[in-house]
Amino acid sequence: MDTRPLVMEAAPEPFLKLEPEVAPRLEAVPMILPAADPVRWRLPPALVGAVVFGIGMPLLWAAWLVSELFDRWGALGWAGVAVLVAGFGLIGLGIGRELSGLAKLRRVDQLRADFASGEADRVAAAARRWLDALPQHAAIGPAVAAADTPESILALLRAGPQQALRDATDALGRTAALQSVAIVAATPTPALDVLTVGWCGMRLIRRVAALHGLRPGLLGTLALLQKTALAAAGVAATEMAVNAATHAVIAHPLLRQLAGDVAGAGVAARRMIVLARAAAAACSPLPRG
User: Fold this and answer.
1) Among candidates 123, 126, 135, 88, which has minimal Cα distance to 107?
2) What's the chain look like in SS3?
3) Helix axes 190-211, 263-283, angle to 10 degrees
4) In 10 A of CB 183, how many CB atoms?
5) For residues 40 and 241, what is the distance between their CA atoms, to the nearest angstrom?
6) CA-CA distance, 50 to 152, in Å (whole number)?
7) Which residues contact 230 (CB under 8 A, 6 or more apart)?
8) How many other β-carbons are positioned within 10 Å of the β-carbon of residue 65?
9) CB-based burial label for 188 (10 Å; 0-12, 13-18, 19+)
10) Per-residue pLDDT, 11
11) Is 126 exposed, middle or buried (0-12, 13-18, 19+ CB in 10 A)?
12) Cβ proximity of 65 and 80 under 8 Å
């Protein structure tokens, strides 16, 4: 019989194994690309060539024609010079008006950014520039100059010029709505309805722009149409007020029967009121509040 004491096997002791290097990341490491230099916008050569050709050839032809007129008779030459100067002068005047209208639309965006900045100096300067374009509301200028915070300046502008412009815009929208109801009721074909109501809408947008101190030309009107389409999404919150205004228009005693007989008359009137408010939102530099 073995009398030696039993020896219990010792349990293994825990140990830590340290990695000599950093363990790899489990997620993918995003690739870091070198920042590219900003690309400067350049006019395409085809467009520059078309402009040079479109302007240069008429000028050369006009110069050749005037020289031929001078060879025939001096009075004819001077008459040709007068016609040439008057024609190109009117073209230059039209181009200048188009550029001026586009510049005024861009100025609205700049004023809107200044009003939304929250800085007292920028807001006060923007208020002065906006009131300069609205001489009929210049009486509020001293009160705006005395205000010392951006919030008070915006409150004065909303209670004064903006409210007056909003009332005038609603009046223009109601007038255009009445006209659209009469046009839809009087025109014999739907295609003619679209053309006439579209003309009324374009005229309404230009009148609202003129009310806000803008005089857009052809290109300015196209740019204003784009801004009006973007602003129409924000005007959708006034649907209840639009419904009430449309009901008042349709209830006009002279047009109640006509609007009741034509299904699209009420829709056209409603669209005119929405269009007027959307155009006012696109032309006003004040942020919504």
Assistant:
1) 126
2) CCCCCCCCCCCCCCCCCCCCCCCCCCCCCCCCCCCCCCCCCCCCHHHHHHHHHHHHHHHHHHHHHHHHHHHHCHHHHHHHHHHHHHHHHHHHHHHHHHHHHHHHHHHHHHHHHHHHCCCHHHHHHHHHHHHHCCHHHHHHHHHHHHCCCHHHHHHHHHHHHHHHHHHHHHHHHHHHHHHHHHHHHHCCCHHHHHHHHHHHHHHHHHHHHHHCCCCCCHHHHHHHHHHHHHHHHHHHHHHHHHHHHHHHHHCCCCCHHHHHHCHHHHHHHHHHHHHHHHHHHHHCCCCCC
3) 30
4) 18
5) 47
6) 52
7) 282
8) 14
9) exposed
10) 58
11) buried
12) yes
Q: How far apart are CA 172 and CA 148, in angstroms?
A: 35
pLDDT for residue 261: 47
- pLDDT for 250 equals 47
Predicted local confidence at residue 109, as pLDDT:
86
CA 91 to CA 234: how far, in whole Å? 38
User: How many residues are present in the chain?
Assistant: 289
The stretches in the chain having pLDDT less than 50 are 239-242, 244-246, 248-250, 254-255, 257-259, 261, 263
Alpha-carbon distance values, 44 to 47, 49, 51 (Å): 5, 9, 11
Each residue of 113-135: pLDDT tens digit? 888 888 888 888 888 888 888 88
Q: In the structure encoding, which two tokens stand for residue 77, read together? A: 């030459």
Identify the pLDDT of residue 268: 66
Look at residue 241 in the predicted model and tell me its pLDDT.
46
Separation between Cα atoms, residue 257 and residue 62, nearest integer Å = 60
